[in-house]
Amino acid sequence: MGFFYNKYDDGIYRVRNICGIKITTKPLENRINMLLSQINEVKAKIDNIDIRTINTDVRSINIENQSNNIPYFYRDIKVKLNHIASTEYNYDRNIFNNINPPYISIIVPIYDIGKDYLVNCLDSLVHQTLKEIEIILVNDCSPNEEDDLICKEYALKDKRIKYIKHKENKGPGGARMTGLKESKGYSIGFVDPDDTVALNAYEIAVSRMLINNTDIVCFSFYWIENDEITDMHINIPQFLYGNNILHLLSIEKMHGPLWDKIYKKELIDKFKFDLFIDKNKLDDMIAIIKIFSIANIYEYIPIPLYFHNRRSISITNDIDKKYIFDDRKFSIENIFNYFRNNFLLKEKEIEMNNYIVTLYRLCYIFIDMKFYKTKQTENDINIYKTQRELLKQLIIDNIKDGYISEEIFLDICDKRNLWYIRDLYYN
Fold this sequence. Notes:
Layout: E1 14-18, E2 21-26, H1 32-45, H2 63-66, E3 80-81, E4 84-89, E5 104-110, H3 115-126, E6 133-139, H4 145-157, E7 161-165, H5 171-182, E8 187-190, E9 196-197, H6 201-212, E10 216-225, E11 228-232, E12 239-241, H7 243-250, E13 261-264, H8 265-268, H9 283-294, E14 297-309, H10 321-342, H11 349-372, H12 378-400, H13 406-415, H14 419-426
Parallel strand pairs: 3-11, 5-6, 5-8, 6-7, 10-14
Antiparallel strand pairs: 1-2, 2-4, 8-13, 9-14, 10-11, 10-13, 12-14
Helix pairs in contact: 3-4, 7-9, 7-11, 9-10, 10-11, 10-12, 11-12
């Protein structure tokens, strides 16, 4: 059962209070006409609205009401809403008196994004209700000239923005690492440049971090794909402690991206400059595993505060061996060595083994997803078979090299009902 809406909610208005946050649920049937009216009204007024006139001194914020005045919130996003949730949040502003600004550094790696996505993203950051923030834009040698022009324009208008240009491409991990080196905030947040953030997201998240002295604050998010929007909430306790944080991540009971969380900077600083890896497509997974391994307190806010755009994956006839094989092999070696060098392996053995099998599962799904988006020609089928063989070989090599035993691998597949991974290994 979700926090917000299911079939039993039809015709019912509910007010709930979860971790100090008031949530009002309203079923789709009673709201769709009002939503369409709001969208049409906003579109008609886009040219006449000055987004800078929003009253940000009010500490009781209603996102649903604010959206009537903010054109970017709906711009270029044609969606069918599964539900509408309005949130009100109150707290004592004095909680910020014990720390120095900026209260959060928001790091945005930028590569080949383009005007539409990037403007929406930056608008959602510069108009955050939490004003004492730092926004770090890292241009990772983007071939799109619009990216550079837009970043320069925003940096000139807003002194809270730092704009950095790489001289050579380092990948998303390298760009995030550059941002971390420049960050001065009490906490750290990461945003993908084609996503947007609810206007009070960081005010809510940072205040919760201060109130409860948490290392990580996570919030649910909206997943936007193919003109559909889905609330991606998770069913976990409000607070997690110690090794339970890493364990639930390793068995995929919580989401693993960087961007639906904020992190206490003193936690990130423990890794110095060894958190992210240049030019590795799994750098975010490696970083999350490391961060979660040393976190003591994790808080989950069951409110969608982030809008993640799932852009279509381009299909290529090339066999991306590096992505399918080498990056995953390196990731497993990197995490294994990290645990071996920083913990007794027995302490993290269960989590390490589950993480390895999770990588196999994600790789399997990626291969299938790419294949079923093709026309399934003979060439497509041959590529599909080759990529499956690469994954099978990765599993065999990991067992041979001692990263995971065959017995444990098969046991995890059985416990997590990953029969398709087990069958791939045997066939």
